[in-house]
Amino acid sequence: MKKIIMFAASVAAVTAIESCKKNFVDAPVTCANTRISVKLAGTVGTRAEEEGITAENTINSVDLLVFFNGGEFDGRLDAFAHLTGAPYTVDATSGNRKVYAVVNSPVDLSYVENESQLLASDVLLSSQKTGSGNLSNFTMIGSKTQTLASGNNPVTVSVGRIASRVRIRKITRDFGSAALAAQSFSVDAMYLSNIVTKSPYSLDLTPVAADFANKLGVCDNAFDTWAKRSVSTSLSDESSVSLDDASNYMYCFPNSISADSEEDVFEVQNTKVVVECTLEGKKLYYVIPLGALEPNHSYDVSELVLTRPGSDDPNHKTEISSCNFTINVLPWTLVPVETEPGKYVI
Asked: Domains in the chain and their CATH numbers?
């Protein structure tokens, strides 16, 4: 089930005006004026609601942008409104139009004159929170193409978040060897490395090196709010720590790169999960490559099973023989990643 927020829009005719005037196209256009009244109809049940992650669904503002669809003015802006509460309305004109709804835009979209400008506007990962530091400002976007007549024209726009999210639900220590099992061991933290920190509204980005943070497995701390979670739990052998609480989700922007790299000089590559541990006072890392990340997808590692000491380098993935994990993408949309059913074993 796809994570969407549904906007039911009814378009009603406005009383006759002497001529059809457009706010953003200078040339005269023969059409009837309409008013698009957008009402938030509610949300489809999603894992976010089921787990009580209400902040992920917060609506702080809605930008409505109506573009001509086809014809001489194809892609030109017909109408725009920035709204911080109901009623959501914008005056537009009749005809074939493409209606965009942008929720919680950190970008002032009043400058937009055409669809290409909107889709090329960048959103930064650092903007996906409120001033209080809470992750409750997720930007969402969706569009609907529809012919608007002079009567009532219900329009529904489904929007999805730009961000991707990742979580490990459970970490199990199962070293097996009596000598290793006797050593002290703790899980200290988990974080995302090689995270993409910006995205255009088109969601079509081939990232370059400058778009990444936490490169080569090293946290630069600037994105800890989004991409790092403390665990701080000691584990004896054959024991587990549950991280199923929704507060353990980590967030980044989509990354279209699936190729991995372990070079010491950064090159564009996939996003990874790094689990930072301590074994007998020595820092060790378990690295899980994620492959390409899509917007509005939630990637779940159901259980990470640690069967031996990890790597001393957070940029080098842990061999499959030393840990076992499963990644599922939830809707947000579910994608399993596993070495065997239900697990990723390292």
From this structure: 5-161 (2.60.40), 164-345 (2.60.40.3690)
